[in-house]
Amino acid sequence: MSRLSRAPLFAQTLVLVAATALAAQLTTFLAVLVAPMPHESYTLNEAAAAVRGTPPAERRSVPLAVETVDAPPHGWERDDRLERRIRVMMAQLLGMPSADVLVEQQLPIPGAMWVLRFKMPYLPERELPTQPYKLGGAASFEDAAIAVRQADGRWTVVSDPSPILGVSLFFLVWLAVSALVLAALAWLFTRRLVAPIRAFADAAEAAGRGDSDATFHAAGPREVRKAAIALAEMQRRIANAVEERTRLIAAVAHDLRTPLTRLRFRAEYAPPDHRDRIISDIERMDAMIGGVLAFARGEAGLNRHRLDFSMLVQSMADDFAATGADVTVVQSAPVEVIADALALRRLVSNLIDNAVKYGSGARCSVSREGKSALLLVEDDGPGMKEDALERMFTPFERGDAARDPSTGGMGLGLALARGIARAHAGDVYLSRPSGRGLHAHVRLPAAATSGEGSLT
Question: Which one, 25, 154, 293, 370, has least CB within 10 Å?
Answer without folding.
Answer: 370
